[in-house]
Amino acid sequence: MSETTPTLLTSRVGEQLETVLAKPEPMCLLIVTVESEVEITSLVETRLRGNLRTYDRLWRIDEVSHAVMLRTLADANTLDSKLHHLFSFLTLPYPVDGSEITVRIRLGGAVRLPQDTASSLMERVGQALQTADETGCVGPVLL
User: Fold this and answer.
1) C-alpha–C-alpha distance, residues 23 and 77, integer Å
2) Is 96 helix (H, G, I), strand (E, B) or coil?
3) What element of type H or E holds 78?
4) Rounded distance, CA 70 to CA 63, Å?
């Protein structure tokens, strides 16, 4: 499991996730981690926020990680496409002080299942993120 997972579950984000899971609406959860300087992470966050719909949620977990809740997204194929799109978009070079900086991004996501709790959903997201850690990019969508 990713080191990020316990941080998320013990935070305000975990509480908000439990509230959302109390409603029977389709959704996916993903974690985005950035391996770069903190100033670049804020640029990544801005780019990520610009790629989300107004009803999606974005939380900053720590200096390098974000959780994203994609509301109304309920199938693994669509989530997989979204993850790969985000990966391609977030890894484009960032202009900083007259030069271009590239970053290493890792993404892991899971589709909400009817029986999910915040803990079980985060466990699957953590597993996908662990795979992304090992492969250096996007983890598999886990059901």
Assistant:
1) 23
2) strand
3) helix 76-90
4) 21
Which token pair is 67?
Answer: 């959780």
Identity of the amino acid at 94: Y
CB 110 within 8 A of CB 128: yes
**pTM for this predicted structure:** 0.82
Q: Which helix (H) or strand (E) holds 61?
A: none
Rounded Cα gap, residues 21 and 36, in angstroms: 32
Once rounded to an integer, what is the mean pLDDT over residues 39-56? Answer: 90
Residue 3, Ramachandran bin (φ over 0: left; ψ between -120 and 50: alpha; else beta): alpha
* Range of 12-16, 22-26, 106-110 with top mean pLDDT: 106-110
